[in-house]
Specification:
Layout lengths: L1 H16 L1 E3 L3 E2 L1 E5 L2 E3 L7 E9 L3 E9 L11 E7 L4 E7 L5 E2 L2 E11 L4 E8 L7 E3 L3 E4 L3 E8 L11 E3 L4 E2 L1 E10 L4 H23 L3 H10 L1
Antiparallel strand pairs: 1-17, 2-17, 3-13, 4-12, 5-11, 5-14, 6-10, 6-17, 7-8, 7-11, 9-10, 12-16, 14-15
Helix pairs in contact: 1-2
Length: 226
């Protein structure tokens, strides 16, 4: 009977706790206005923006704005995702011809889990020869509802590719973007879980009972022998 219960459990448990994921979404969906620039203080720096995760998310790719998506970028750029304490959680190098989604070119990364309620920083590298355009002080921005935009972020002049810890509450420097999935787990209410397990137990018991019950033909043969 224990063997049968174990086989039923292997069918029930994955159903209860199998993680489900939504399709990939884009963090920064659109923006209007703003001023374009190629460098900030004429030094190699990292510029971008900060945000709060409103759900548990999995970041699957990092991206960079391309002002003229019909043409390739002029140079490669590093894009990074940091925790609020400055830990680099993931990074990617955007190639000049990386795949486009809208006006952003993306490169995949190993999934990075973001926790609902925590703040994160997204930044892209500005580096010599400063041949690609960025934009700043957008008139309006639209982000996915799964995140809350907090404002611009950058590092010190000459800081290269590093944590963009200097923040302001304006409409950011784009630049960088990311794609993500919402992480959820399908877990029924405790009463539902118990009901499913009970049904599994009854099913296993019924199967065992049928296996142990002698057939009519066997009963007849036993009677004749007696």
């Amino acid at each position: 009977m224990l063997k049968n219960l174990a086989s039923v459990s292997t069918l029930v448990i994955p159903f209860l706790f199998f993680p489900t994921q939504a399709q990939a979404l884009v963090a920064l969906q659109s923006f209007t206005g703003g001023n374009v620039f190629k460098s900030y203080d004429g030094t190699n720096m990292t510029v971008g923006w900060s945000f709060t995760a409103n759900d548990n998310l999995s970041v699957t790719s990092l991206g960079l704005w391309d002002e003229t998506p019909a043409d390739s970028l002029s140079q490669t750029h590093q894009v990074g995702l940091w925790s609020s304490t400055g830990t680099l959680l993931g990074s990617a190098t955007i190639q000049t011809n990386s795949p486009l989604t809208g006006s952003f070119r993306y490169a995949p990364i190993a999934p990075v889990a973001l926790t609902s309620g925590l703040t994160y920083f997204l930044g892209s590298e500005l580096s010599n020869p400063f041949s690609d355009q960025y934009t700043t002080f957008a008139s309006s921005i639209v982000t996915a509802p799964e995140i809350t935009f907090l404002g611009t972020a950058r590092n010190d002049s000459g800081g290269g590719f590093s944590f963009p810890s200097i923040t302001a509450s304006d409409n950011g420097r784009f630049g960088p973007n990311f794609q993500f999935q919402v992480i959820s787990t399908s877990v029924p209410e405790p009463t539902s879980t118990l009901s499913l397990l009970a049904l599994g137990t009854l099913g296993a018991a019924s199967t065992l009972k049928r296996q142990l019950k002698p057939s009519k033909s066997t009963e007849k043969e036993t009677t004749k022998v007696g």
